[in-house]
Amino acid sequence: MKKIYDFICFGALFLFASCGEDGTDVFELGTEDPVVTITALSPDYGYSGDEFDVIGDNLAGAVDFVKVNIGENVAKVLSCTDERITVRIPEDATTGKISVKFFNEELKTDLMLRVLGKPSVESISKEWGFVGDLITFTGTELGTKAEDIKMIFGDAKVNAPVTEWSETSFTVQIPVGATSGKIGLMVYTQKVNTPVNEFTIRQHATLASLTPAVAYKGSEVTIKGTSFGTTTEGVKVLVGGVEAEVLSCNEEEIKIRIPISESLADDQEVAVKVVTPYEAIEGELKFTVKATPVVDASTGVSPLEGYIGTAVTITGNHMPETAELLVAKFNEVQATVSDYQYKDGGIGILTVKVPNGVSVGNVKITLSVGNLQFYEGTFKVNSSPVMNSIVEKLVQPGENITIKGDNFGTDKEAVDAFLNEMPVEITSIKNDEVKIVVLADFPTVKDAMISLQYADIPIVDGQTVNVMGKRGDVTAVVLENCQQPFIARNGSSSGAWSIPDRWKLNRDFYALIHDNRDPNGRLSLLSSVWGGSNINVLRNDKMYQVVTLPAGKYKFILTVPECNVVPGGVKAFGVLFGMTKGEGTLPDLKGSGESWTPATEADFIDNAGQKSYVLVSDHRVTTFASPIEVELTVELEKEEVVTIGFVAYIDRGSKGANADITNISIERQ
User: Fold this and answer.
1) Residues 6 or more apart from 580 whose CB is under 8 A from it?
2) Is the Cβ–Cβ distance between 408 and 382 less than 8 Å?
3) What pTM value is reported for the model?
4) Phi and psi at residue 128, in whole multiples of 5°?
């Protein structure tokens, strides 16, 4: 096989070795400089004093920075170009592998230069061995008799005894005291290179223990011992004569997976034997195959049909003591174990829930312990009830809530309904619609959760409705973002000022301030030379919310910490809070100075001559005075879509004016 050796010549920092896609050995020293490639020797033989070329690419042409070795012998570099390095074979050289150093980085190759007229070793039977093993070396001109061979393994104090010899090969026995390292070889008086950089002296492996010693087929088991090696390649483990999968191996530990084989009988004790890349280890360990769990096909699984989320109970014999390794799947979707009970005699009771993601219809249910599947059956997944929407946005005690969806069924007795976990009556049920009635004393609740509970199905929920109680505070289901802490519209802030979230505006203007007076914020209708972002004039600017209110009497209470003008310069100051019929129907203001009224009262609600608005600007509160409450009572004779909010006409002139609100609450009377 042709081999290519390459690395980066200039500025080299690190050496990386890998195998190319075509099987060639590739060596790189990593920077962005050109890659040096060594491909051949020409010729690949010669006598001492002869010249030969190391051929490649990007060899740099720097003689002073290049060194070439033949085995342990340093050769003389005569010249160096981009394509070849010319080298003279030194007098003491013998056959050996070529290595090249560039800038103190060494590239070792398998390219062999054969030195003629000298003893040479070109191959070795193996590069590792145990004390007492026979190692054979092959070459040429290997002396005239066995006594000419003198070999030392590593730091051994004695020569290895020669057991066989010829002029082209000899065999030695690794002596006691041999250590891993370089091999020193003398043939008569000539020091001779060998084709191995380092010979490894192995110790015979031993077997110590196996954990766990009792386990199911498919279980992971650890074998402890010594001198196993560092690779799984060449490692073979037989469990009762059946080859196991080897998961990992280091010198002191081998991890295997017990074979899933009919040859391994339940409750059988079997021998475990190990072969490493170096030897078949003497001795054996004992392992007991735990009986495979059994689930009765007709009674072991209950129920055999249900819905997503249905609890399924599986009872088996010879089950594990814990559920740690138990895996239940519906098709390929793993189920969550919700409960496991282990009883004397190996009885295990497992409870799982049918997982999300399983298709409707007949599916395969499997149960495994680790990698050992011990049950397979069929489970029917029925279409589950689903809530899609709620017709009503706001309901009162005694009113119906209409739930739209699918697969509800038609039997009222098969399902219980709840509103915020309180049982409620189902007044009608169809496959795509359920109606429930709100309890007579149900309080005001924003986003009350609706849920349906079937006997064998997880709770069906996900939809909410606002409930307005008959009396008391109903603010939460009427207005949003009307109390501290106030929330700014995302991305609307400019300094302390912002636009309040959840409020509609006829145009974008700043009406919310967070400053050192109120870190929780204030609604602030202001025009002022000191207003920072809010110095513009407000001319019939409107801020409101549109809601549907049932018939009833409502009292609005506004907390006003400041409502004031700076004397001598304000041109106009009028702020109205009110409720009108319809959507976005608040009227403009008309007037001048500090005297303002609605341009029209047509859309306000008339309660015995009292229209449904109040002029906040008529209720003055200076900066350091205590807050006041401004009230507005409105009675609706029937359910109405209404607009609730503010109209402001403020012209700062050379000074300024403002009306601040920290709280709006609504009571139903």
Assistant:
1) 586, 587, 603, 604, 605, 612, 642, 643
2) no
3) 0.56
4) -150, 165
